[in-house]
Prior knowledge:
It is a single chain. This protein has 2 domains: 2-234, q2cbj1_9rhob like domain (Jelly Rolls), CATH 2.60.120; 250-337, no CATH class. 33% of the residues lie in helices and 17% in strands. The chain is built from 8 helices and 12 strands.
Amino acid sequence: MLSTLDTAVLDPAAGLQRQFAAAQPFRHVVIDRFLDPAFCQELMDAFPPFAEHAAHNEYGEVGGKAVVPNIASLGPAYQRFDNLMKDPQFLEFAGRITGIPDLLYDPEYIGGGTHDNQDGQELDVHVDFNYHPTTELHRRLNLILFLNPEWEESWGGNLELLKEPFATGDDVKTVVPLANRAVIFETSEVSWHGFRRIALPKGKRISRRSLAVYFYTKQRPPQETAPSHATIYYQRPLPDRIQPGYTLLPEDVLELRILLTRRDTYMKFLYEREQDFSQQLAGRDWRIGDLQAREEDLLKEIAAGKEYLQAIHRSPSLRLGKALTWPARKLRSMTKGG
């Protein structure tokens, strides 16, 4: 199956391992001509059309991003790509590049598959969930293959890798999403990434198309391990031009409305998620007939709690996540009090 990769990718002289290890702001490598060009063209030709049933966002609403996780259902080209991703030779090859051995393929493509982002879409800077939700494996690598035959940096939608969620300038690596360009990056507690709003020229009828695959391992070095968490987003701040004395233009008003609506929606989402978590805790059976019989279990829970708190202290993304969800938690406490 490695024959579907471009021959230059397999050349040891390409130095992909060295590039990955030395990359900033975190370990990654950008590979142009990742696939054999003819094969990449097959994937572009067979890319699924945008469909509303595949475009429900985390709030249950129809949005501007369509996702198809079951790529093997999209025809022969995508079946070949799926076979490549699970091929032991490819997993070993990816492990050599990244220095992460024993990589595992995800047949469920949780969070992955084809991603079709329409004009006006953006992806807030975020750190990904760190455990597979069903297998509980450690998430270790993201592979994103772009499938856009044309794209200009000025159109937005460029992948950004950031040192911190609010980084600017030299602390941001920008990747234009051109066809057959792949980005492989390590998934960690500091692998902040996203893309700014897509703003296509008038009359341009295309979308930002990509194919995402995530890889896992059974173990992870203890110093890199954190408690299980969902994706942690950093909401984009107001533009720098919004200053005292500045006269708002129509596009500024639209920008403010978008940001405020997204913040309100995100706060509602966080609040409801915390309510669900609280209800799950309330539903646990705490009726214990014999405390002595559970003494060992209770001690284990206490020890696990201490370990959890220590891991939070070590994890930059979880500390930020706690700060971002503070308003929702405060609202919840006020609601209880009232």
